[in-house]
Design a protein that fits this description.
The complex is a heterodimer of chains A (340) and B (254).
Chain A (H helix, E strand, L loop, with lengths): L1 H37 L2 E8 L5 H8 L2 H4 L2 E8 L2 H9 L5 E5 H7 L6 E10 L3 E5 L14 E4 L4 H12 L8 E4 L4 H7 L5 E4 L3 H9 L3 E4 L7 E8 H6 L1 H20 L1 H12 L3 H7 L4 E5 L2 H17 L18 H6 L9
Parallel strand pairs in A: 1-2, 1-3, 6-7, 6-8
Antiparallel strand pairs in A: 3-10, 4-10, 4-11, 5-8, 5-9
Helix pairs in contact in A: 2-10, 5-13, 7-8, 10-11
Chain B lengths: L8 H19 L11 H13 L2 H33 L1 H16 L6 H8 L3 H25 L3 H9 L4 H39 L5 H10 L3 H29 L7
Helix pairs in contact in B: 2-10, 3-6, 3-8, 4-6, 5-6, 6-8, 7-8, 8-9, 8-10, 9-10
The chains are: A alpha/beta (340), B mainly alpha (254).
């Protein structure tokens, strides 16, 4: 009897302990699950500090990244090539930069993929000295022209030369860093330069009527791209998709709040608001993937192969293989052209 | 175990480094070719840019800028330094500004030079000139100021004039210090010349070509140019050491 009562009490105690342990474990696991559910998804993002990253800047400022549960650490670089290097070195998971560096990289095996196009921008153009006899594009023949090899500056020049039926030897080309170009034009060391903003605007302001801005938006518009590494895309597809959703919200904001966007981007990128105003109607802020990007990059590659001895014997890359449309298709299928 | 030293010992380090690179990049393929391309490809690229004449053109442009800046810096820096050395009162007055300029990273003065000399060769030559001038000035004046007083007095006792004391005693006392400045200036002015080509931009020049290769992701060309630049720097340093050894063979002896 005594033994049985003792056993009963023991069994009750045992049951109580088991139940208590179960509840504690359940509570703990619930806490862990809840924590996992609320813990933001992290991305290290490198952005070029210019209009290429317009949607990214807006998404950050408007809190769309947080809304999508993302905790983004930003690295800011003065040009896209630095961001590309960060991706290759594994220091960044995603980046925003123009298609120029990606075109050059695609001549070599690499592990990056284009997730989406974010912007089409015509700001790269010719800024010239009117008082040096340049009144139209064809007048640059025989003149000293500043440009920056390996960038959209060169890609515009290559198209311009072809359009005018000239060759690179028909002018004296001088490789210059962007900040030195306005000064070189002002000092008369060069007759013209091909560059993006704010350098063109600086030259125009300094020279006034002596300078002329020659632009052909149909000739070449650079494309701002959203790029990630293949490994990050494979391991964290949800993060890429959340980022795309945040950028879609930013795109909508830009279209609805034009003047606020211009004021904010002018402040963030140090671009004059008047330049942004001027370029706004011909700049397309739209997340998409279509065959025009492939055509543009193939043209880029053709010019590079023609002009740069480092790429003379290399075959034109198949840019389709560097584009991964599945993320954008998941988020906004109508933004992905059929056949991509 | 003892090693017998040979005049080719310095090559062992290069061979070991090149061998490790070859194993990592060419044989085992453990290195990312976008960061460390195979040795074979770099050698092929080096051969191509040598044969098509572009390397010689760029190297000549860089060396021409460097030589002008360096030569002006050596001549003027040494003369001013010697002058300040024999006038300690004046040296104390200008010592502060000189040290201030020397302490400032020369690349920080870059935009100022750009504004004064423009984007042509003038700014690049001036950039090579400034560090050379300062190093030579400081070392030459230091050498004069610290010339042996005993030897000066001995010359005075023998009735030597101020000019004779300077020419036959002080100058030779200062020479080892001048050569120390010269050796430092060789490397620094070459670095500054290449960096100024990268920063400002130019038609031809190793610095510009290195930056172009970086922008266009031509990694093999980038490494080939760095290899050449390293060899040039190494050769210049060896030459300056040899000149120093021959010209001031008495240096370090009592």
């Amino acid at each position: 009897m005594l033994k049985t009562a003792y056993q009963r009490r023991f069994n009750r105690l045992k049951s109580f302990r088991v139940c208590a342990a179960f509840f504690i474990l359940s509570f703990l696991s619930l806490g862990i699950t809840a924590k996992a559910a609320t813990e933001p998804e992290t991305i290290t993002f490198c952005r070029a500090n210019n209009m290429v990253s317009a949607l990214v800047y807006i998404a950050e400022a408007q809190g769309y990244l947080r809304e999508e549960g993302l905790d983004v650490t930003f690295l800011t670089a003065t040009n896209g090539k630095i961001c590309q290097d960060d991706l290759i070195a594994g220091k960044a998971d995603m980046a925003s930069y123009a298609e120029g560096p990606m075109t050059y990289l695609s001549f070599s095996p690499h592990a990056l993929q284009i997730v989406a196009q974010m912007e089409e921008n015509p700001e790269t153009s010719v800024f010239a000295r009117r008082d040096h006899g340049i009144n139209q594009e064809s007048d640059i023949k025989g003149k000293t022209v500043g440009y920056l090899p390996g960038t959209v500056s060169y890609l515009y020049l290559a198209r311009l030369v072809e359009k005018l039926g000239l060759s690179m030897e028909d002018m004296h080309l001088v490789a210059l860093q962007p900040p030195t170009m306005p000064q070189a034009l002002q000092g008369g060391v060069i007759d013209a330069f091909i560059m993006w903003e704010p350098w063109g605007h600086q030259a125009m302001q300094a020279l006034g009527d002596k300078a002329i801005h020659l632009r052909d938006p149909k000739l070449y518009n650079y494309r701002a791209l959203l790029i990630t590494t293949k490994s990050f895309g494979a391991e964290h597809p949800a993060r890429v998709e959340h980022l795309l959703r945040a950028l879609l919200k930013a795109e909508n904001y830009i279209h609805v709040h034009r003047s606020e966007s211009i004021a904010f981007l002018s402040q963030t990128t140090s671009l004059d608001a008047s330049v942004l105003e001027e370029n706004w109607p011909v700049t397309e802020h739209k997340l998409k993937l279509d065959s025009s990007l492939i055509s543009l990059m193939q043209d880029n590659a053709r010019y590079i192969s023609r002009d740069d001895p480092n790429f003379k014997d290399k075959p034109i890359p198949d840019f389709r293989t560097f584009i991964e449309p599945k993320f954008l298709r998941e988020v906004a299928p109508e933004r992905v052209e059929k056949g991509m | 175990m003892t090693f017998r030293s040979s005049r080719f010992d310095f090559l062992i380090g290069f061979v070991l480094l090149g061998g490790a690179w070859f194993v990592a990049a060419d044989l085992c393929h453990i290195a990312n070719p976008l960061l460390l391309p195979p040795v074979k490809e770099i050698i092929i690229r080096l051969w191509q840019i040598t044969m098509n004449g572009s390397l010689a053109r760029d190297l000549a442009a860089t060396m021409c800028r460097w030589a002008q800046g360096f030569a002006w810096g050596v001549v003027l820096g040494t003369l001013v330094g010697l002058g300040l050395g024999v006038m300690p009162g004046l040296y104390r007055i200008v010592e502060g500004p000189i040290e201030f300029l020397r302490a400032m990273p020369v690349t920080a003065i870059f935009p100022l030079f750009l504004m004064i000399f423009g984007i042509g060769d003038g700014s690049k030559i001036a950039m090579a000139f400034l560090p050379t001038f300062l190093l030579m000035l400081i070392n030459a004046s230091y050498g004069v100021l610290h010339a042996s007083r005993d030897r000066r007095r001995a010359a005075q006792v023998f009735g030597a004039s101020h000019w004779q004391i300077f020419r036959y005693v002080v100058f030779f006392e200062a020479l080892p210090q001048i050569f120390i400045g010269l050796r430092l200036a060789v490397s620094l002015s070459l670095i500054v010349t290449v960096v100024s080509e990268m920063f400002i931009g130019t038609d031809t020049g190793i610095g510009q070509r290195i930056y172009d290769s970086y922008l266009t992701n031509s990694v093999t060309t980038l490494y080939a140019l760095l290899l050449v630049l390293g060899l040039v720097g190494y050769a210049l340093n060896k030459v300056s050491m040899e000149v120093e050894k021959r010209c001031v063979s008495w240096a370090g002896r009592a």
